[in-house]
Fold this sequence. Notes:
The structure holds 2 protein chains of 2 kinds.
Chain A: E1 2-6, E2 10-14, H1 34-43, E3 52-56, E4 61-64, E5 68-76, E6 79-81, E7 84-85, E8 92-94, E9 99-102, E10 107-115, E11 119-120, E12 149-152, E13 177-184, H2 193-201, E14 204-210, E15 214-218, E16 239-244, E17 249-251, E18 259-261, E19 268-271, E20 273-277, H3 279-285, E21 293-298, H4 301-321
Parallel strand pairs in A: 13-21
Antiparallel strand pairs in A: 1-4, 1-12, 2-3, 3-10, 4-9, 5-8, 5-10, 6-7, 6-9, 11-12, 13-20, 14-15, 14-21, 15-18, 16-19, 17-18, 17-20
Helix pairs in contact in A: 1-4
Chain B: E1 7-11, E2 15-19, H1 26-42, E3 47-52, E4 56-61, H2 68-83, E5 90-101, H3 104-112, H4 124-131, H5 137-146, E6 149-154, E7 161-165, E8 182-185, E9 189-193, E10 196-199, E11 204-206, E12 209-213, E13 240-245, H6 248-260, E14 267-272, H7 274-279, H8 281-294
Parallel strand pairs in B: 5-13
Antiparallel strand pairs in B: 1-2, 2-4, 3-4, 5-12, 5-14, 6-7, 6-13, 8-11, 9-10, 9-12
Amino acid sequence: MISVIKPGLQTTVQDKGRIGFYEIGMPPSGAMDKYAFTVANLLVGNHPNAAVLEITYLGPVLQFGKRMRISLAGGQIPPRINGQPVPMWTTLEVREGDELSFDFVQLGARVYLAVEGGIDVPLVMNSRSTYTLIGIGGYEGRALAAGDRLQLADMHEKEVAVGTQIDPRLIPAYSRSHEIRVVMGLCSYRLTDESKQTFLNTEWTVTPEANRTGYRHRGERLQFVEREQPFGAGSNPSNVTDLGYPIGSIQVPDGVEPIVLLHDAVTGGGYATIATVISADLDRMAQIKTNEKVRFVPVTLADALEARREVQARLSQVASAI
Amino acid sequence: MGHLETRYEYGGDEFIFVQLSEAMSLEANFKGMAITRQLKGRELEGILDICPSNASYMVRFDPDVLSPDLLMKELQQIEHAVEELDDIVITSRLVDVPVYFEDPWTHEALMRFRDRHQAPDSTDLEYSAKINGYSSKEAFIEAMTSAPFLVSMIGFVPGLPWCFQMVRREKQIEVPKYVRPRTYTPERAFGFGGAFSVIYPVQGAGGYQLFGIAPAPIYQKEQTLADFQDSIVFPKQGDIFRYRSITRDEYDQVRAQVEDGSFVYHKKEISFTPSEVLADPEAFAEMALGRLYHD
């Protein structure tokens, strides 16, 4: 058992996500940075879909009720056990009564805590992921609160020796400015050619509205091609007849402040989508904080697939070394 | 169904988005429904989500299992096959959806946000009736309740149905959204925006004109009501909803049934072809309502 002494800013239970229900308006939720999530589970020998804690910006204080192996992977929110610094990306052991706490976030935005066996919460539509908007999944459908007690699941598959570390070359480099690769398209024909260039040339600043639903960016104003709006589309030039929004898709309501939709996305609506963040870079989006800088870099679908394979190859290297 | 112009687009490496038409129409919606139902039937390995929407649809896939190029070809081929299947049969549900118009709860909400509305001095219903050329609120409610709506898309949040009235284009109601969205909308509010009516599944922000409230839920996470045994959301794309204007008494009765767990939507199964609806929407509406209430 794990007791929550302090909850942190937003600590939620997440697994790979609730896949297959997008058509009823249910976003997948799940760990925002799948790379860090996967490595954290590997380091404690868990099933790849075991539930972990996703810790955002400000870490919690947790107390362990028994001896177990744990690991922390993701952004640099330096962990301490009983006040002593401990390494990330490493198999650790805690004993009954040990307390895990965190220093202030340095780089990145989210860290994943995997515990041997995984976090045990009820499966809701095949997933343990928390979706706070409607209050389902995870721990009572919400972020953790002080006094919560987490039970452990039985998804442990393999013994991993305490002190196991991953090759430092397989630890992502985190920074404060970010190049995020996108495939242009969807309804990008609605933007003027000049605004397409502006979108790609601007160094965007992430606003305080940056969470699991999406990240909003401040920078330049974008213009849509003038037209008589089609029937049903709504009156603003950025409106289209309501359509589905891919995870990672970017919309620019009224031409102001591009929004990248992430894992708790609204699944559809009436704004023109202009590009989609490639799957490999969704993990990197998850490690961006408010006020950091983002540039969107256009790539082809072939590039996106190649980047995806590179991530998978790195994860295989991690797995085979553990 | 030949004169719509289709655009195929990749949404990163996991999505294909297909826009069947820029404008909303029953025709575009039926075409999307036909294609996505065919695709579902093919049970291709590697498809994660099939999401039909108003005049477009979207597929999420795992590119490690199903190559994006192959899927793209498959979708184009299905579109081609559907063009030749003008008499494709759609099976769905006719549902009686009670709505209490001008209720105290949405009234309170809309009055709180008058400064965000086009017409601060009238209610949403009065304003919408006027700009659509109706002489009274009553005549406007009559127009919304006399012909059924097709559930043309589900989404935004779980269970929210976009509904498009099954009438000729010249009789379609169209209203703007709020100038700035509200930060509060009651759960089960009945709203209208663009050419679509919606029921808000949960309390939250919203920009649609507010006309009333439904006593019955369209989303129930506890799944205690009979209509929610298989899914936490009730609406399905392709359903045909008839909004029926009810009194406060009936509203309270339905609420009591929802509370004690006995509420069941009145509904009938129906099969129809897009061609018969498009050929004569009025005749179809009359037939559908007859079937729902008298068969």
